[in-house]
């Protein structure tokens, strides 16, 4: 069964603040507003992921909550620690096995890890394909199933500006 993985980089977050933990950085008001518009664009494209998995970092959880409100009202967001950063793509993919029956999943995370994951899904190597994941960008990658067998197919890659234009 084919699965579409929507890889989403979190929205615009507060800059690092001295000794404050990086994990506690929130989305900025502009980041929230732009992300809500981008989420409206995704809804216009008809996205309804079976599940939304997010990094445990606050900015990613806030991003996932905005996406869930627009795409799967009443749906829950699952914290998935392997999206926090620093995990090799093969481990991230292996952790998705419990969702193997899903037709689509949304994964909310960070750069450079999302780019490495996309490259791994598309080419079997985390360093071959370089997708420029701006904050709020989304890639739709179709894979053979979970875990994927062989290379995936990039269905589309949209910047946050393009998603906001779709929302208009």
Question: Could you characterize the architecture of this molecule?
Answer:
This protein is an alpha/beta fold. It contains 5 helices and 6 strands. The chain has a 6-stranded mixed β-sheet with strand order 3-2-4-1-5-6, sandwiched between helices. Helix 1 (29-44) runs parallel beside helix 2 (58-71) and helix 1 packs across helix 5 (160-167). It is globular and about 40 Å long.
Count of helix runs: 5
Net shape: globular
The count of β-strands is 6
What pattern of helices and strands is seen along the backbone?
Answer: EHEHEHEHEEH
* Widest sheet, order of strands: 3-2-4-1-5-6
Distance separating the two termini: 34 Å
Question: Main beta sheet, described?
Answer: 6 strands, mixed
Average pLDDT figure: 95
Secondary structure: elements and pairs:
Blueprint: E1 3-9, H1 29-44, E2 51-54, H2 58-71, E3 77-79, H3 89-94, E4 104-109, H4 113-123, E5 138-143, E6 153-158, H5 160-167
Parallel strand pairs: 1-4, 2-3, 2-4
Antiparallel strand pairs: 1-5, 5-6
Please give a quick description of this structure.
The chain is of the alpha/beta class.
Main attributes?
alpha/beta; 6-stranded mixed β-sheet; globular
């Amino acid at each position: 069964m084919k699965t579409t993985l929507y890889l989403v980089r979190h929205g615009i977050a507060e800059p690092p603040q001295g000794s404050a933990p990086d994990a506690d950085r929130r989305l900025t008001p502009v980041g929230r507003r732009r992300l809500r518009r981008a989420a409206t664009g995704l809804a216009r494209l008809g996205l309804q992921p079976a599940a939304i998995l997010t990094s445990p970092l606050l900015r990613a959880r806030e991003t996932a909550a905005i996406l869930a409100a627009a795409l799967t009202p009443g749906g829950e967001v699952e914290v998935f620690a392997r999206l926090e950063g620093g995990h090799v793509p093969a481990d991230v993919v292996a952790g998705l096995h419990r969702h193997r029956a899903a037709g689509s999943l949304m994964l909310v995370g960070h750069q450079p890890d999302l780019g490495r994951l996309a490259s791994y899904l598309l080419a079997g190597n985390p360093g071959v394909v370089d997708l420029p994941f701006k904050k709020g960008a989304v890639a739709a990658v179709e894979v053979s199933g979970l875990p994927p067998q062989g290379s995936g197919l990039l269905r589309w890659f949209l910047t946050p500006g393009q998603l906001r234009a779709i929302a208009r």
